[in-house]
């Protein structure tokens, strides 16, 4: 077997990035757009506010009429109308006149200032409503001006933005009952391994339940893809080849779990080559998941060969598959986010490869700290359940001690911006 040459993690990520593709546009109802990616810039179709309006309950009047107002000399105004939000007064304010106005209502003609209700005193005189003011006001006080938040034609939501509840509120404001989003990539998942049982199967001596399928299925959903379960195959070259060959016509990307390590029955790199795909790399200088293999078909479709060990499979997805799904969706910051934290445990043993240790990130004592969640072996599953990050321990000739500052990779958070975070 040809000896595999490991490449650095950041180089592997850059290599995969060169094969990024973008999804097509589809229009979907606004209420169904949560967590989707906007496919084109969305412009404001009107000014916000669309007219001068009142931000408070109070009275609209003319500032010039208050120039003599003071606590010793209150100035009286006749209240000639009363309007609420959505109502436009037909009256024009004249000298020493005011209109009772509610929050959000349009400023009536003739008015150039609003005074809050609690700063006035109301009373009746000869059966007519009045209010008095005890302070001088400046023109424009307490008026939300037309276009002060945004103007018509401005880009309100940029292409590649992930739709959140806040984005939905903004889109609704501008009348987008349907929105342009990137069509989700269909990502096929094939599990390889004669040892695998279905999740519902009773345990059998020498066999294990297939946890990778459910895990990767969930990771694809969380990243914004459309997972497609293509079943499992045993450790047979011809069967595996036919399964992969049939799958590529149904999907935008393909993930296989298992069949990538260096044992006698691991032949996924050979399957890729028989398909005419270019193997981009078949070993990465990382633990776990060093045997992660990625290939590209002439069509540009990416084939991800992830380890059969759950933790290694998880790491491979987070580092290589998730950013490509994000790029498909035009996400502005496709790489995972990271933070700096203090180690709570020793890692005395040096490792030539970069390590990704399952951990929890906590904020205590005014600083972030990272604590391993349990057994750190590649095959361990229990330590994944409580983890919300990876401690990143760069490869080298030294170990690490509790108290050292290290980088941690956060699961499913936007903001890494570049694969260089691994070694910077």
What is the global morphology? elongated
Q: What fraction strand?
A: 25-35%
Largest pleated sheet = 6 strands, mixed
Based on CA atoms alone, the radius of gyration comes out at 31 Å
How would you describe what is shown here?
This protein is an alpha/beta fold and 424 residues long. Helices cover 17% and strands 30% of the residues. The chain contains seven helices and 24 strands. The strands form six sheets. A six-stranded mixed β-sheet has the order 6-3-5-4-8-7, with no helix packed on it. Helix 3 runs parallel beside helix 6 and helix 4 packs across helix 5. It is elongated and about 100 Å long.
What's this entry about, in short?
This protein is α/β, with parallel strands linked by helices and 424 residues long.
Notable traits:
424 residues, alpha/beta, six-stranded mixed beta sheet, 7 helices, 24 strands
Topology:
Layout (H helix, E strand, L loop, with lengths): L8 H9 L7 E5 L12 E2 L14 E4 L13 E9 L13 E5 L11 E4 L3 E6 L2 E6 L21 E3 L7 H9 L4 E5 L3 E7 L3 E2 L10 E2 L1 H13 L2 E8 L3 H11 L5 E5 L10 H7 L3 E4 L4 E2 L5 E4 L5 E5 L3 H19 L7 E8 L10 E11 L2 E6 L9 H4 L3 E5 L11 E10 L10
Parallel strand pairs: 4-5, 11-14, 11-15, 12-13, 15-19, 17-21, 20-22
Antiparallel strand pairs: 1-10, 2-9, 3-5, 3-6, 4-8, 7-8, 16-18, 18-19, 20-24, 21-22, 21-23, 23-24
């Amino acid at each position: 077997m040809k000896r595999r040459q490991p490449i650095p993690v950041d180089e592997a990520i850059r290599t995969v990035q060169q094969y990024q593709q973008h999804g097509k546009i589809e229009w979907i109802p606004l209420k169904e757009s949560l967590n989707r990616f906007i496919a084109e810039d969305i412009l404001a179709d009107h000014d916000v506010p669309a007219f001068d309006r009142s931000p408070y309950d109070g009275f609209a009047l003319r500032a010039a009429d208050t120039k003599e107002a003071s606590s010793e000399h209150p100035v009286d105004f006749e209240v000639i109308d009363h309007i609420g939000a959505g109502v436009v007064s037909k009256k024009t304010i004249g000298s020493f006149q005011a209109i009772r106005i509610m929050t959000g209502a349009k400023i009536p003609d003739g008015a150039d200032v609003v005074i809050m209700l609690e700063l006035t005193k109301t009373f009746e005189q000869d059966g007519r409503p009045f209010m008095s003011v005890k302070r001088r006001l400046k023109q424009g006080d307490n008026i939300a001006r037309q276009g002060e938040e945004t103007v018509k034609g401005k880009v309100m939501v940029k292409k590649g933005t992930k739709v959140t509840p806040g984005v939905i509120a903004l889109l609704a404001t501008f009348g987008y009952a349907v929105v342009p989003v990137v069509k989700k990539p269909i990502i096929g998942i094939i599990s390889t391994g004669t040892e695998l049982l279905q999740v519902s199967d009773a345990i059998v001596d020498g066999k294990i339940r297939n946890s990778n399928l459910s895990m990767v299925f969930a990771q694809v959903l969380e990243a914004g893809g459309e997972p497609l379960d293509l079943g499992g195959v045993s450790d047979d070259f011809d069967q595996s080849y036919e399964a992969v060959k049939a799958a590529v016509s149904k999907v935008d990307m393909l993930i296989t779990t298992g069949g990538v390590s260096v044992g006698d029955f691991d032949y996924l790199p050979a399957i890729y080559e028989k398909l005419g795909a270019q193997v981009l790399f078949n070993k990465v200088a990382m633990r776990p998941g060093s045997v992660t293999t990625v290939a590209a078909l002439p069509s540009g479709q990416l084939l991800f060969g992830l380890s059969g060990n759950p933790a290694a499979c998880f790491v491979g997805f987070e580092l290589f598959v998730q950013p490509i799904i994000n790029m498909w969706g035009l996400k502005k910051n496709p790489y995972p986010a990271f933070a700096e934290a203090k180690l709570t445990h020793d890692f005395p043993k040096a490792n030539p490869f970069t390590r990704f240790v399952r951990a929890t990130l906590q904020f205590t004592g005014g600083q972030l700290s990272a604590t391993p969640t349990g057994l750190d072996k590649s095959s361990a599953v229990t330590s994944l359940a409580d983890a919300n990050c990876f401690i990143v321990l760069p490869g080298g000739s030294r170990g690490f001690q509790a108290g050292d500052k290290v980088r941690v990779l956060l699961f499913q958070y936007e903001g890494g911006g570049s694969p260089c975070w691994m070694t910077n």
